[in-house]
Amino acid sequence: MGVTLSVPTDAGRRRIEELLQENEERVLKRWLEIAGSSSSSHVDRSSLAGQLRELYQALRQSLDGSGDSDLRGLLAELSRSRARQGFTPTETAVVVFGLKEALYESIETDGSPEALRGFIWFSQLIDDLGLLTMENYAAAREKVIIDQAEQLLELSTPVVKLWEGIVAVPLVGTLDSARTQVVMEKLLQTLVDTGSEHAVIDITGVPAVDTQVAQHLLKTVVAARLMGAECVISGIRPQIAHTIVTLGIEFGDIVTKASLADALAHALRESGVEFVSRKTRVAVRTEED
Amino acid sequence: MDRVPVLKLGDILIVSIQIDLQDQSVLALQEDLADKVVATGARGVIIDITAVEIVDSFIGRMLATIAAISRMLDAETVVVGMRPAVAITLVELGLSLGGVRTALNLEKGVALLNHLEGSRIAAAVQ
Asked: What is any Pfam family matched here (chain B) (predicted)?
């Protein structure tokens, strides 16, 4: 069975190789049309033509059996650069799959049964190359996302000093376990380094609080308490207060305040600083114990 | 077996843990401390764990036990100098050291004990 099938397949493959050689200019022109029309405006026609010609040469070389890695390398490079430039997956894939359609027209004109049989084999080959392209594209995209996540992690955890002995962490963005871990460690380390006894965790910029986020916050507060510092959670918006109560999350004896200003006032009061209004000006007096 | 020294400063006892604690040394420390509290009539005990880098539930329980013993003898216990990593580990273990007071460093621990003593006397006067 294998023998009866393999003879015509080989014949088909040979015919395809011949067609690729004979109709090179025609197929390339059609390929460029297909690939160019599907890509949006930000594609450079001349550079695309260059890329396609290179791919075409590499494909023919790999069919001759004179080096396969070149084609794969080119495809990988193409998909990587397209992923970074923000092309959609479809736009990237069509560049490869377009060759099938472009060649098919030449095969129709040829009309021989070998060519048609060969086209099935050729189409499988292109499918494989297309899959390779998509794999590279996805890997490149993933790398971009990982890089950005790392940058975000570095950017997003400042610990600021509000007063002598009072530090604050303004949290912005969604909290997950990894981020909370970073925030927690940084806050606790700052408490040690500055000898601050009061910390304010401000969650004004946190879009949503679920049980997991609340759990992380509670852990941070308890850890700070173990080290001998008190934490206040501030910036709880009305919707978030509603969510917390609906979810049945217990904050226990942890002090929560609506705004950062309230939290600062609370921390100052706790550390023995007193505010006194004097006519219009506000004076601050520290009470010595 | 290494013994942890118990230092007396005024009416406060200071224990600074700088070795890897074994079961035997912990038991010895608890005995020494109880004896010393009774002998000196100390009103406060400060346990300094600045040098402790690795904790487990055993250390957590030790701290709670020492606090309980001291409270029986009318002395407040303050744990000072806990490292962030240690605090996080204890929280992850689910130990919150209820009943043990904490302070960031030795200085603040002494201040806390003085403050507590002050409010205790104030309460007695009223």
From this structure: STAS
